[in-house]
Amino acid sequence: MDLTGAFGARSAAVGPCREPPGLESLHIGGGDGGFTALLELPPTQAVELLHFTDPSLSSSSQAAAAAVAGIGLDVSPPPPLHAYGALTFPSNSFLMERAARFSVMANEQQQQQNGNVSGETTTTSSVPSNSDRVKTEPGETDSSQRLENNRCGKRKELDKKVKGSTKKKNKSSEENEKLPYVHVRARRGQATDSHSLAERARREKINARMKLLQELVPGCDKIQGTALVLDEIINHVQSLQRQVEMLSMRLAAVNPRIDFNFDTLLASENGSLMDGSFSGTAMQLAWPHQVTETEQSFHHRQLQQLPLPPQQWPYDGLNQPAWGREEDQDQGNGHSSLMVGSASLHPNQVKMEL
Amino acid sequence: MASADKPINTDVPEKDVFALHFLQSLSNLRRQNTFNSPEKTNDRVKKIKKAAYVSMARAAGGTSRLWSRALLRRAAKETNKVVRFSRRKKRVTWLRRRSNRRDPVEEEEKEAERLRNLVPGGGAMETSKLIEETAYYIKCLSMQVKVMQCLVDGLSPK
């Protein structure tokens, strides 16, 4: 039976840190086909995937990867698997061994629990301890069945790898950033059911973003613990909002004094913003031109010249460059800028399509 | 849940984009007849503040961010404008609100609640998305504050 054949070969593979690289590549080659058949991925992507994991991991985890690939190959014929799952356990030593290996891989493989690894000989002793783990295995294989129907979404169960050291954890978080699915590692002594996996993935996402925020808010680098960091962030946001309110009050106070028209506004703006934020000259006439220079593509209207009476400021002309620049960043629609332009001209009008 | 973690993009447009939008909104306000001589300054303050937020939302990329959408929607509600957004995800956000209300038990969830109250549109987001939006929001807010500061400095009498 080919299953036993693959099984025997894989048993050598599961003894990690000792697997010869030739056998390893064999597994990967074999597993590659199994994976792609299973997951309907383009083969190049799966290969890239497997190869991506390999160089970044140490050899022992490569063994784990190979073993996973082997098991992936093993999983692809579904009916025998279900048959095995339906059979009673004691009569099915193969299932026990596979369960042992699976659970070993899913949990502390790095620790070389030799009692489990050499499960070929000590199946009876490992039966009671593995009975609960065996129950997880049909669940995992069921979910791997579902993978055939899903897109490359839920690869978590198949891609459970053993976390050896924190180095690998960093690499896994990098892999999370780059690859189009979540590569979740089951850590030592943690449950491996899908709920806690999802929870853990979510946690990692949240922590990654918190790091971003920490860099943003001044003085948050040194604080340990997410609660305090969040406190700091909340204070920062509140202070910014209060600043906006304060400045708007000051603006309201300032307004009636000066004849509030756009020319003077621009002059004052240019004068004060001249500290490097504007790339061009600070002349009033130059400002709209500079804005158009930075505009990249869009439907253009003629930019009207500045010496217009202030009430007829060319909103459309100015609107489009700005929208053009930022919409290029957002890849928005062209016509939305037009609509916004008209909306700002007639603030009481109804349609504003964004 | 197993969605991709694309590199989080928190680039914010340049200061002049914000400046432009804010100045435009201020000029709009100026054109309104009742603007420059209301008896109470509070109305004016409120209008300016609202204009600031709306212009910030527009400058920060229109509807591509949840909080900007929520801001614009809020502003439009007050002025009875009809604002149409290209994607209507009302049902999804409603469901999210339901699931979000359910557990403020951990300490972190409490903080997330406070953040949600602060950031516009926060009630509809999951925590990880909330944090991303907060980062962008903070950047835009600081940009807007800079713009307003420059304006006030420029306009205030020497």
UniProtKB/TrEMBL annotation, chain A:
GO terms for molecular function: DNA-binding transcription factor activity; protein dimerization activity. PROSITE patterns: BHLH (PS50888). The keyword S-adenosyl-L-methionine does not apply. Residues 132-162, 171-180 have a biased composition (Basic and acidic residues). It comes from the Eukaryota. Residues 106-182, 309-354 are annotated as: Disordered. SMART domains: HLH (SM00353). Keywords: Nucleus, Transcription, Transcription regulation. Residues 106-131 have a biased composition (Polar residues). Residues 190-240 form the BHLH domain. InterPro entries: bHLH_dom, bHLH_ZIP_TF, HLH_DNA-bd_sf. Pfam families: HLH. PANTHER family: BHLH DOMAIN-CONTAINING PROTEIN, STEROL REGULATORY ELEMENT-BINDING PROTEIN. This is BHLH domain-containing protein. It comes from Brassica carinata (Ethiopian mustard).
Automatic annotation (TrEMBL), chain B:
GO terms for biological process: regulation of DNA-templated transcription. It holds the Pfam family IBH1_N. Residues 18-78 form the IBH1-like N-terminal domain. It is found in: Nucleus. One of its GO terms (cellular component) is nucleus. InterPro entries: bHLH_AtIBH1-like, IBH1-like, IBH1_N. The keyword Nucleus applies. Keywords: Nucleus, Transcription, Transcription regulation. It comes from the Eukaryota. CDD domains: bHLH_AtIBH1_like. This is IBH1-like N-terminal domain-containing protein.
